[in-house]
Amino acid sequence: MTKKNPLLKSQYKNLLTDNMVPIIFILFTLIGFLVAKGVPFSFFLSDLSSRFYRNAFLVLSLVIPVIAGLGLNFGIVVGAMSGQIAIAIVRYFFIEGIGGMALCFAIATPIATFFGYLTGKLFNKTRGQEMIASLIVGFFANGIYQFLFLFVVGVIIKVPADHPMIKTDGVGIRMSVDMGTLKYSLENILEIPFMWAMLIIAVISAGFLLYKRYVKKDASTIENKLGFYAKLTGSLALLVISIISIATNNSLMTVKKVPVVTVLLIALLGLFNNLLLKTKLGQDFRSVGQSQHIARSNGIDVDRTRIIAVIISTVLAAWGQLIYIQNMGTLNTYGAHNVIGMFSVASLLVGGASVSKATVGQAIVGTLLFNSMFIMSPEIGKAVFGQAILGEYFRTFMVYGVIGLALGMYVWNANRKSRITLDPDEAEKLVG
Amino acid sequence: MSENLLKLKNISKDYYGNQVLNNINIDINKGEIHALVGENGAGKSTLMNILFGMPVIHSTGGYKGSIEIEGKEVNIATPHDAMNLGIGMVHQEFMLIPGFTITENIKINREITNPNIVSRIFGKSLETLDFKKMNADARKALDKLDMGIDEFTLVAGLPVGHMQFIEIAREIDKTGMKILVFDEPTAVLTETETQNLLKAIKKLAESGIGIIFISHRLDEVMQISDRVTVLRDGEHVATMNTKDTNTHEIAQLMIGRKISLDRKEKTNHISDETILRIRNFVVKMPGEEVKGLDLDVKKGEIIGIGGLAGQGKLGIANGIMGIYPAKGEVVFEGKPLELNNPKKSIASGLAFVSEDRKGVGLLLDSSIEFNTVFTSMQIHNDFLIKIGPIKFKDSKKIREHTKKMIKDLDIRCRSPLQNAGSLSGGNQQKVCLARALTQNPKLLLVSEPTRGIDVGAKKLVLDLLRKLNEEQGMTIVMTSSELAELRSICDRIVIICDGKVEGILPPDAPDADFGLMMSGSRANSDLRGDLNG
């Protein structure tokens, strides 16, 4: 039931302007399919899904700081470095397989906690400028990281020069470190065909929706009928498509298999984020994020809450980087962490998040859309200009453009809200 | 005699030697509504800050005297202590988070939680919120106030009246609430909302809570309070039973006779010609809104604009000068003035000395001479040498002019090149005046000319204004919170209340008239002057 409302039109207009960035990206991908005719859908899905498993965790690690009012935490680069330090240690001692991976997680956690604490401290000192501070922290930490890996290892900590990880002169770690059997250690636990995974997801989501609507009688599903039926139809469509393709064994069955453990980890993190927000700590994050002044006057320890948010984000980023690198197969020692801050932030923004608002759903959608653009842009470059490299340039343009646009729109909206205007009707009433 | 709840004994407080409270004694009984009245700066807020253990008190050397709650002396060092002792406050500015529901706001940092698996390991902060119980509590608190609104509504977009009630609900939801302070709760409310609020306050008092009710509106004080305490300039003037007094007496006690600045007889003549005519004037200045004001200013007079903070007196000059959005009809020297255009306002011969000296008035990091001439340079193209299309500063002329101003206005500085920011408050104000005078204005608007400057400098500034008026016949519109200084130099004093002219009084009118008019008391409607008089 839709109410007759004169505001409705402007509401739709707002819906459009608020979701401008995701819409641009959807259109871009669709245009990509139109102009670059040679891209099979199954190839696209394979590429997109593997990129998703790699990046989603990192993007999700950005959600908590946004809710706690710290903005976009470019400082997850520091977390990524913690993860890489853990990998270097584990690889140095040749600890292999899933055990080695578990050890990586165990080592990365305290390191990331420590760095997260320091970053949080810094953010409390640079209140109001957290984002730029986080960006600079990333650059600064990169210097320390290089000092550690290029100098300390070898000069201060003596290592054997014939170790495969160490450069031939015995000082510093090589440009790239082979992951050995750490590679795909999470993926190898269990993999299932893509369409079977889709089938499972469709069943779960449809079941969950129905449960919420008819057993729990959740108010939101009853009031927002349109949203409910749209979601239900989507799940059912997915269900039908996956059954058809499993039955007919069509091209969709050639999509790369799904690493169950990685996907479960991503799902768990999404669930963790949502559950955390329902706890006292999560409520404190939200209070602090909305107004530090009011939170403080109600006795919430604002500084401590903010530090906890940064620690959580940094630790999650470290874990995310571990997932990322075990999927890549080699550790690009001096480059792997450099761009993840920018790319993760851009992904989150593409999902429709802003400096002050982010949800798990936006992170997921954003990761999918951003990587679609990444896959399609060289194809478009090839099709339109005959050169894939132009598409590469376009990628860079889009990454930084999205961040710039989102930041600009945020400030623009904030200014628009705080501008003082004299409402003519109101004035008329006062004068009488 | 009912049971004693709170006793403030011999409370004194000074900020770096500046006495703001002197020997205040107030006691509050259970179930009593105790009104606290006084002008701006009478010390009400400081007293409440002491009661709440605000950091501003303790970081400036604490206070003298003692506080007793239910006969026991207590030490209130932090707002948290105050909360634990059962002292609550309904703030004037709403302490509500717009993006939260009513329940979340009522329960902020006092959320009800249930343990879960994770919290058993990692501690209490990871316990799950129990929204059912929280909603039930919020419902109970809202019901106590007869609020029918759903507890899961978002606060953003609610009418201000509701927000006020949510603040109250938050306070009464706290267990063991004994004393509740209302700081100007009705300032932003409509008539009906006010009546609802007063009813709710009465109901709370009946349940045994002691209430301190701070308000400028004497009608409300008369209507609701059991006793009333009057503060003036940090002194405890009187505590009376409300039924033994009346608004007239309270108003008189509030204003009192201050150490008056001598008033000299004026020598010049005020013409009958109207230089500035304002009709249906509306200004959107946050916190100082003007809501449909009519006013005539005669050529050659000093007209004072007074009234309590937040009533809109500051909005008038800011609106005329185009600093905040304004609407209405303003005629200056027979010609209509284009509003919302500072450049036009200045060009037509108006000059403004802003109340926001550091924000709007001065370029703090620039020299005195640049501050003095810069508006004239921008608007009137004075002090410039034109060579072809390029304009240069006429440094020699600027220097000479500034030196003359420094001498005339007695600006204490090392040189005309000293930065304005490094001057004392009084001298900064003189630089502002120097800049206004450099524009050779036909009408000078001065807002809060003595704010934040010491007594000696105050007198100098006021004498200067009078001299300008008498010797050059300059028309001056002076806005000030300090009634005494308005009374010392103005020919007429306009009192602004709720964005409109409440009345116009001669400077030698009785104190009670000023007091009643400023509080917008309905009883004085017969006093309201003829606007065109």
Quick description:
Chain A is mainly alpha-helical.
What can you see in these coordinates?
The complex is a heterodimer of chains A (432) and B (533). Chain A has 18 helices and four strands. Chain A is an all-alpha fold and 432 residues long. Chain A has two domains: 6-193 and 257-431, Orthogonal Bundle (ABC transporter involved in vitamin B12 uptake, BtuC); 194-256. In chain A, the strands form two sheets. A two-stranded antiparallel sheet of chain A has the order 1-4. A two-stranded antiparallel ribbon of chain A has the order 2-3. Chain A starts with 7 loop residues before the first helix and ends with a helix. The model of chain A has no long low-confidence stretch (mean pLDDT 86). Chain B is of the alpha/beta class. In chain B, the strands form six sheets. A six-stranded mixed sheet of chain B has the order 6-9-10-3-11-12, with helices on both faces. Chain B has a six-stranded mixed sheet with strand order 18-21-22-15-23-24, with helices on both faces. In chain B, a hairpin with a 2-residue loop joins strand 4 and strand 5. Chains A and B meet through helix 12, helix 13 and helix 18 of A and helix 3, strand 8, strand 13 and strand 16 of B.
